[in-house]
């Protein structure tokens, strides 16, 4: 029996020890990334983490202070944006108000001096892709925010870039439209097979659309992986706290037991590399914690119900385990979990979870990090 060796994944974008310094401020610090051909890759992090600076360096709008950037294996450091087969979609749309939809989408093609027949065909394909074929004669000021963003996207796609850069393109849309556009944007990426590099501070947006996510903090990547890997297996307290909601606790590890200061202890799987007596961080997702109907082998510890918040599809319980240590429990309001009576605050309760759902985290992220970018 023979085992096939998987083919290597081709890289559309490679960053090698890329650094960007503004005066005494390091915005991006020795960043190394491989973005695969045809994937939807997101740079995710809070304001000032370096994600937009990274995108602008890939696009050629900013030069790195050090390191190398390669597109399809070719170094592009020093090349202006118009010499890179890359297009960018911005949050502001950047449409020409005096032009109609067709002419906005055709603008870049005309600058490249393509013939009229090719321009008509490409613009038609682009408008069909973003479902705006019936608005080709409309002026920009006649369009909704979502339609304007579709025009900006079509204008970028008709140039057939190797990589499409998207700088928080959905940030100006209302929540309902933004969620609709997330689904459409991912569908367009799948249909075109163009590499998308997407910048966002919205964790739900990144989880919804991405094939892989690089979570950035203070100029470095804290973790890079699939949405499921990052959500289910965060490596650092920053990632656990930034992606979704986590119950983060700090305490001492002794004999395989994690001890909450002035509170109870419970077993964790810390690994042999963690020294006995060390101070560690643990994280548990609130939806992984139970308040009743415990399974065998579950960790169970006592607490006091501090607050109950009903939110329609879920109920949130705040439980105090020790002075200064509260955890959040989320329960879906299904027939199975709906309680016959509303629990009163101050009631003694027991919380429980599977041991595999309690994650031991690195105390710090990788690398030395810098202050926020401007």
Task: Summarize the structure in words.
- The chain is α+β, with helices and mostly antiparallel strands.
- The chain has 2 domains: 11-232, Rossmann fold; 245-361, OB fold (Dihydrolipoamide Acetyltransferase, E2P).
- It has 8 helices and 19 strands.
- The strands form 4 sheets. The protein has a 6-stranded mixed β-sheet with strand order 6-7-8-3-9-10, with helices on both faces. Strands 13-12-11-14-19 form a 5-stranded antiparallel β-sheet.
- Helix 2 crosses helix 3, helix 2 (101-111) packs parallel to helix 4 and helix 3 packs across helix 4.
- The relative contact order is 0.13.
Which keywords apply here?
8 helices, 5-stranded antiparallel sheet, OB fold (Dihydrolipoamide Acetyltransferase, E2P), 19 strands, single chain, Rossmann fold, alpha+beta, 2 domains, 374 residues, 6-stranded mixed sheet, disordered C terminus
The CATH top-level class label of the largest domain: Alpha Beta
Number of domains: 2
* Level-2 CATH architecture of the largest domain: 3-Layer(aba) Sandwich
Query: Care to count the β-strands?
Result: 19
- The H/E string reads EEEHEEEHHHEHEHEEHHEEEEEEEEE
Query: What structural class do you assign from the helix and strand content?
Result: alpha+beta
**Major sheet description:** 6 strands, mixed
Query: In percent terms, what proportion of residues is strand?
Result: 25-35%
Uncertain residue ranges: 365-374
Give the oligomeric state.
single chain
The percent of residues in helical segments reads: 10-25%
Write down the overall mean pLDDT.
Answer: 89
Provide the spatial order of strands within the biggest beta sheet: 6-7-8-3-9-10
Instruction: Tally the helices.
Output: 8
User: In angstroms, what is the radius of gyration?
Assistant: 25 Å
């Amino acid at each position: 029996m023979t085992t096939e060796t998987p083919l290597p994944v081709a890289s559309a974008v490679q960053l090698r020890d890329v650094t960007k310094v503004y005066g005494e401020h390091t915005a991006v610090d020795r960043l190394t990334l491989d973005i695969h051909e045809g994937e939807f890759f997101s740079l995710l992090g809070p304001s000032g983490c370096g994600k937009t600076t990274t995108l602008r360096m890939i696009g050629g709008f900013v030069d790195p202070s050090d390191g190398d950037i390669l597109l399809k294996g070719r170094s592009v450091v020093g090349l202006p944006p118009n010499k890179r087969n890359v297009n960018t979609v911005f949050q502001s749309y950047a449409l020409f108000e005096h032009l109609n939809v067709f002419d906005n989408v055709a603008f870049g093609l005309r600058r490249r001096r393509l013939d009229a027949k090719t321009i008509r065909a490409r613009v038609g394909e682009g408008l069909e892709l973003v479902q705006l074929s019936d608005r080709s004669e409309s002026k920009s000021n006649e369009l909704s925010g979502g339609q304007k963003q579709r025009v900006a996207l079509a204008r970028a796609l008709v140039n057939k870039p190797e990589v499409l850069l998207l700088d928080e393109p959905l940030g100006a849309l209302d929540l309902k439209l933004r969620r609709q556009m997330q689904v459409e944007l991912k569908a367009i990426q799948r249909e075109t097979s163009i590499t998308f590099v997407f910048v966002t501070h919205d964790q739900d947006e990144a989880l919804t659309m991405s094939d892989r996510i690089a979570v950035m903090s203070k100029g470095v990547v804290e973790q890079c992986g699939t949405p499921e890997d990052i959500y289910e297996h965060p490596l650092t307290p920053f990632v656990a706290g930034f992606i979704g909601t986590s119950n983060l606790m700090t305490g001492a590890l002794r004999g395989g037991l994690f001890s909450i200061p002035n509170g109870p202890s419970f077993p964790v799987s810390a690994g042999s590399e963690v020294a006995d007596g060390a101070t560690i961080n643990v994280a548990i997702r609130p939806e992984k914690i139970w308040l009743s109907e415990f399974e065998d082998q579950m960790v169970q510890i006592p607490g006091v119900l501090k607050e109950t918040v009903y939110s329609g599809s879920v109920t949130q319980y705040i439980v105090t385990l020790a002075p200064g240590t509260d955890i959040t429990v989320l329960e879906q309001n299904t027939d199975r979990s709906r309680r016959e009576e509303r629990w009163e605050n101050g009631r003694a309760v027991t919380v429980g979870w599977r041991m595999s759902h309690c994650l031991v985290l690195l105390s710090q992220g990788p690398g030395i990090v810098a202050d926020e970018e401007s």
